[in-house]
TrEMBL record:
Entry GO CC: cytoplasm; nucleus
Annotated coiled-coil segments of the chain: none
Sequence segments annotated as region (Disordered): 224-254
Protein name (Swiss-Prot/TrEMBL): Eukaryotic translation elongation factor 1 gamma
Domain EF-1-gamma C-terminal residue range list: 257-426
MF GO annotations: translation elongation factor activity
UniProt xrefs under CDD domains: GST_C_EF1Bgamma_like (cd03181), GST_N_EF1Bgamma (cd03044)
Domain called GST N-terminal: residue spans: 1-81
UniProt keyword terms in alphabetical order: Elongation factor, Protein biosynthesis
Domain annotation GST C-terminal: ranges: 87-217
Amino acid sequence: MKLYTYPNNPRAYKALIAAQYCGAEVQVPPDFKFLEDNRKPEFLRLNPFGQVPLLDLGDGKAVFESNAIARYILESSNRQDMLGGDDAVQRAQVAAFGDVALGRIDPLGRPLVYPTIFPAFFKPDKTRFEEALEQFRAVIGGFERHLTDHTFLVGERITLADITVSMSLFWFFEYLLDPELLMEYRALKRWFYTCIGQPEFVKVIGSDFKPCLKRPDHLKMATSTNADLGGHAGNQGHESSDHAAEVTEDDQTARKPKNAFDLLPKSSFNLEAAKRLYSNADNTREVMNQIWDTMFDPSGYSVWVVRYRYNHELSKTFMSANLLNGWFQRMDHLRKYLFGSMIVFGTSGEPGSCAIGGAFIVRGTGDSLPEPLTEVEDTDLYTWTKADVFGKDRDLVNDLFAWEGKFEGMGPDYDGKPVATGKNFK
Ligand SMILES: N[C@@H](CCC(=O)N[C@@H](CS)C(=O)NCC(=O)O)C(=O)O
């Protein structure tokens, strides 16, 4: 099967992610020329609308429309479970969420994010932006409502609906939904990062998704009168498309901050040696004491106890572990500066039957977390409390690194819950 598309197209990602879930072979011809080849008669015979992505099955057969393509790939590989299985209601729900993605999210790309992604083709339009943002908030508000008490969109596992909707939202997360705007959509954010952290998604989109940290200036200007969005100070003079291109470049630079960890004074603590010692330990608690007493440098590093803020939503241990996997992948670039031990507590059951907590050694000693860490999307899904490993918190921190113990002081979310699994960030 051949998938015609231009590179990095989230609509094409739907098919490629679906293929990862069922092991289907999908080739993306690298020599396909978008806006040229899709206008040729032989392409129009396969898709009369001349659009990509298009799945070419050979022998003159093809499937067009991104949701239909992903559906076909799953269906033809017997992954009916990902289409809602035998349950007619779930099948309809999978289709319904896909329809919302195509009908209500995708059309808002043009006013809301295309001027940033394709500044040469789309000029920002302030009035249209305002209107579209209202419409967008109405749609994502619906998803937020649904996801507040659902882990995934349909049923208890990833389905085609999660693929189609997350990929429709992909560019919005990348170019529009900055942390300020996302404050109101925490469940949506949690769900989106859970989806893109799944190994099948990571194989297609990579593990270094760069979220929107700062809305491009021309969009800030457009929202500067919107009290709802916090009333950004107006920026003048960014209306022309030339400026839009400039702003986009500035924004790209802003998204790659210099690493504040590297600017800190040298420390005597060899974090990598501590990680090695820990990994080879027979008695973790003993080794942690050795690390604190003979290696640790409190003038260069700090220790934090970390608690998931939304334990009341967690009902499955494997999904909780997936949250950690996704988070760790997104923090991959910070391994040199951090050493963490996170635990999934509890057993699968009702919401709140699981909890996530752990401890991290972090480069830097300030009372707030260093910026490179706060820039990782998942960081604010957790509360971070500085721990005193030379006093009252040593036992708790040692328990958290050892994945066993009394865990005294973790709080009521954790009380009486057994350790289900542990994961290290090292
Ligand atoms: N609903 C369609 C939309 C496809 C679409 O808009 N494709 C764009 C590129 S992402 C395209 O081919 N545009 C060229 C054209 O319309 O001529 C889908 O999800 O597959």
